[in-house]
Amino acid sequence: MNVAAPRAGIPWLIAPVVALAAFMEIMDISIANVALPHIAGSLSSSQNESTWVLTSYLVTNAIIMPISGWLANTFGRKRLFLVCITGFTVSSFLCGLAPNLASLIAMRALQGATGGGLQPVGQAILTDSFPVEKRGMASAFYGIAAVVAPVIGPTLGGWITDNYEWRWIFLINVPVGVALVLLVQSLIKERGAAARGPRRSVDWAGFGFVALALGCLQVVLDRGQDDDWFGSAMITALVIASALGFVLLVWRELNHSDPMVDLKLMRNPGFAVSFVMMLMLGFMLFGSTFLIPAFAQQLMGYRAVDAGMVLSPGGLITIVLMPVVGRAINRVDLRVLAGIGFLVGGLSLLLMTQLYLGVSFQTLMWMRLLQAASLPFLFLPINQMAFRDVSPDKTNNASALINLARNFGGSIGIAFASTLLTRRAQFHQSRIVEHLQGLNPAYPDFTHQLGGALGASPDGSTTLASIYQGAVQQATLLSYLDDFKILGLLFLALIPLLLLVRAGKGGGGPAPAH
User: Fold this and answer.
1) What CATH number did the domain enclosing 340 receive?
2) Cα–Cα nearest to 62, from 146, 1, 120, 18
3) What is the pTM of this model?
4) pLDDT tens digits, residue range 410-453?
5) Cys-Cys crosslink for 19: which of 50, 92, 145, 199, Cβ 3.0 to 4.6 Å?
């Protein structure tokens, strides 16, 4: 199902509207993170229980996103887009009015389900609304939403929570959603799905396997670190269920005539490699977006809003560079642009291994700025590589898979970074403590000098407490540096994947169907 051919100039009206819908949905993935303590206190629940506000959203979002292509083909792209925006707006309103935690979790699950189609359907609309030679600029509009929203979310959420009330992080979606419904209704055209004739029977088994595989995996990624991974019987059972679901999903969808998830697209080498690269882009984007504010808050003592301000200039440089790279898409080999992105992104992460406890706000901000500068060079070329060999009738399905790759890459990145942070902090602390004992010739002199500087108590408890605090700080710092190093090396290791993609500039994909 494709959007009807728009009049001249209309695509440039469609683009910001569609991008705003995606921006609203992507931002809601992270906007509630900093508000969890306030939500827990307001609704008389524990901090651990309140995390299901995030998990419920991510699970239903992950289930709906891969089948959004099938839904768009079946019910019509515009109709699905309007249903998603309306459902997301209504559920956001109900989240803001939730009287208890159980109702908030239920409404967040509905919000995630209705928002699951906004990203892939929005990108598909943009792809088919622009002529081939201008798709780079169309991707730039969408890229601003996809890359900047995760950065803005925590900052905006922290500011709203500090200055107003946590309920407003959901209620602000309502006027935006109402405006989007009116704009989409008037700007976007399509030919009715009914004109294509009767549809085949619904692949309910495929939907069940999608829910089992992705739903269980999302819970594992979101709750694994808190529940000690395979030390938890629940996490172990969910991993087994997810693995079984994936096996059954692949078998079912590759052998079904009208699959809910078109895995046959993965037989296209260009699309398959682009899928992996988009997965890793999400891995780096969300992983680093988690690490940098955590570093600023945990080791530098920043407030949530101040930590978010470290990220904000990176969002601005991304907005500036997106149109620049969008224009370069049709002039430069896509592999060269993506190679620049991987190189700059990897090196910027390795540069962060030079951070120290007394680092200034400006230094941290400039390091993030350099990292953010790599994102347009990755997001736009990877999208172009993914769609250029996809036939027009498969645009919806391809968009669903590419957006799923970025989102799940983000979930994997956050889980990986969080787990590595905890494990490496434990490792470094044990190594540091090995040297804090009397057999180390330097230790008695160090404690004596420190005790004199602190005016230590006679029993030495103040000195020991100070030494332990310093050891913990140093161990935590080293764990962050390990995280940045591994993320950077993983990112640089992706550069050879570009050799598996055929050469070519943007604009070489299939012509849009109307």
Assistant:
1) 1.20.1250.20
2) 120
3) 0.82
4) 888 888 988 898 899 889 888 877 766 555 565 566 565 555 55
5) 145
